Amino acid sequence: MTLNEIIKIQSVIDKRAIAKDTIKTLNKTVYYSKSKGANIAIGDMHIDHFLRAFKIKDYQKKSIDFETQEVIDQQKKTLSKIKRLLNEN
């Protein structure tokens, strides 16, 4: 059973719609599958595979949040511009 299927079952049991951010997370967050050699959406992962792949201790060592990486990249660009401007003066 995949995470997407579990969330659908939960919505029926709870008689509530699935939160939009939950759907977005399941569809947009990807995990690199070594066996498939490709990124797969976590919503498509079976629960047991998800739990193995995302053990908190191991996952923290292996991954970095994409938004955090974008911020880091933007800060590096800004620092490069500042250095360039300082060198011009």
Please explain how this structure is put together.
With 89 residues, the protein is mostly helical. It folds into 2 domains: 1-54, no CATH class; 64-89. The chain contains 5 helices and 2 strands; from the N terminus they run H-H-E-E-H-H-H. The chain has helices at 3-14, 20-28, 47-53, 56-62, 66-88; strands at 30-33, 38-41. A two-stranded antiparallel ribbon has the order 1-2. A hairpin with a 4-residue loop joins strand 1 (30-33) and strand 2. The radius of gyration is 19 Å and the shape is elongated. The model has no long low-confidence stretch (mean pLDDT 83).
Order of helices and strands: HHEEHHH
What integer is the average pLDDT?
Answer: 83
Q: Give the helix tally.
A: 5
Principal-axis shape equals elongated
Described by strand count, sense and barrel closure, the largest sheet is: 2 strands, antiparallel
Core attributes:
89 residues; mainly alpha; elongated
Strand and helix layout:
Elements: H1 3-14, H2 20-28, E1 30-33, E2 38-41, H3 47-53, H4 56-62, H5 66-88
Antiparallel strand pairs: 1-2
Give a brief rundown of this model.
By secondary structure, this protein is mostly helical. It contains five helices and two strands.
